[in-house]
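Let's practice the habit of predicting before peeking. Look at the sequence and jot down your guess about where helices and strands might fall. Then scroll down.
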Amino acid sequence: MSNVNGHMKIADIRARWVRSQLWRYVLLSMALAAPLALLGVMPALIGGVLALVAQLWWHQPWRLPEEEVVRYLNQAFPELEESAALFLKPAADHHLLETLQVGKIAPVLEKLSLPRTFYKPLRQAAMTALFMILFTLGWYALNTRITSLPVSPANTNAQTNHPEKVLPGINGAQITLQPPAYMRRPARTQSAFNITAPDSSLVKWELHTNNQVQELALVFNDSTWLTLQPDAAHTTWTATRTIRKSGFYQVSLNGHLSELYQLQLIPDQLPVIRITSPQPYTTIEFGQSTKVNVQATLSDDYGVRNALIALTIASGSGEAVRFKDQELPFENNFSAQLTQYQVSKTLNLSAMGLKPGDELYFHIRVTDTRRQENRSDVYIVTLPDTAQLFSMEGLVTGVAFKPEYFRSQRQIILDAEQLLREKDSIGKEKFNSRSNDLGTDQKLLRLRYGKFLGEESESNIGDPRVAAEAGHDDHDHDHDHHGKEEGGVVDPKDFGNAAKVLDEFTDKHDNAEDATFFDPEIKKQLKATLTEMWKSELQLRLYKPQEALPFAYKALRLLKDLQQQSRVYVAKTGVKTTPLKPEKRLTGEQDKISPRQQKETIAYQDQLLAVRQALAALDAIKAGDTNVSTVALRDAQQVLTTQAATTPALYLPALEAMRRIQMHKGTDKDIRTAQQGLQKILKAPPLQPQSAPASVSPSLPQHYFHNLKTGRP
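Done guessing? Here is the structure:
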């Protein structure tokens, strides 16, 4: 191969490189334009072209120098011996060694084939474009499937499988649904008479007739009529109405009624509040930061209009409790009225005037674009008063379940703090000894409080104080003196004695769950107190009184909470009550008070009876019996009418089928549809307590306890 042929080979490799780069940028632009196709063809086309132009302008692959190709060949093919650049020089400029080297590597360059890694960037771009195209197609198919589904979850297959029947004389209909302005949704038009629209939507009917008619009106389920207004030719009729209740309606053409068409309204849901920080009950211990970060997620189906934090500060104790209310806005700007917001607010308790012993109650109130308001649960933040923990008030005024040994816990804290102050003046050995003695005192206190939960005492070898405290009630599970003689032989007369057997094999000590009559919350707090005492004892045993103080303080605070509940604030749930009417208060009028619950119960039972009778009548009709009472079917039709007025998409097909059955035009399909609708009304009866059936023959444990009671051996 001559020097010219080698140069042409390098130029061919450069051309391949440039073409692969161009195709790579085209594929990457297609990958970027694929998601934009969901917005339309023009956004995808414009986005793809702009991405391609930007990549070409930035990289400019056509300016690839041949020297870059030579460097790539030298690095990728060691057999070229770093000499591929010689083919770029004219042959006349080669000296003897360069000429020999060109002749040596020329056959290698002639047989050179590019490796697979040369086209790796192109393959990666192709895979990216393919993935984005498939992802876009899948997303489009999924959205098409979702939008094709009924808007309301109450829609059933019976509604879609049952085509609408239009009165003869009506060529077509155009119904325009305009949602309320606060929803910021465009109007849509449909030709079907069944309507599913947001609540309070403005509905405009435009019906076309093939000839002139005298009267055209809409009859709603609440017996109201809406007369349509004709045009000059009396072939186009229009009417407008704002729909605020679900139900059904019919078209009346010169006195002839159509079938039932549904009016299903989608309600505007209340705003949803999810508070992620802080916890529902937060206690800020002594020394911690008094700043509380409130973080929440606010969402609404049509948009959030405003949100704020309502605060209540409770201070004081007993009958001198004072409450102070205030409201704080979030820093977010709700002018865009988005459907979701991430809000946060830092509450500086010190700047708000909270002192030790005060409590902060707060909740978040959110208003949506329809001015519907929702509030979260009440969250509580407390600042415990460490000075109040050392108060002697509980010694005199305490409730019934207050333990009487809580003063020892306070003394342990005082002794531990005194020991820390004297640490530098006493030796290490004395310091460790006093810390261990404090651990022993903490254990004694823990054992005393354990009696309130029915826990047994435990001994401490080598500590006579614990033995003296626990020896009087520590039985060590030694019951041998109850059932044995001095020689350890069981008395034969006691054989079969039920009392002796129970005394031998049972433990008479109370367990921790049934030892007292405390309620579960008090037991839970007592267990938490014992846990903190045990942690304090552990650190004192390890000669670390500084680490033991936080646990001792927490145990003391839990005991003080058990001793006295000085403040009870009821606003713990997000309840919005009906506003009172002052003009009707203290009037003494009771004429409108009636036992409504009893009437509703009787009416509901009558409805269920009518439904069951109608189901039996439909079964008889299906079997071919023509002598069926129409009273049960008429009562069931009234029940279906009431249900269809609230959820037409669920019960309207059954109501139509029942009407055809009443007119003796029903088919087997109508009977099945009516039965399905009536069965949805029936609910499973509530479970009633029943006595367990006795077993046929007594089991072995029953035999055993029976013999124990009768004293049989």
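How did you do? The mean pLDDT is 77.
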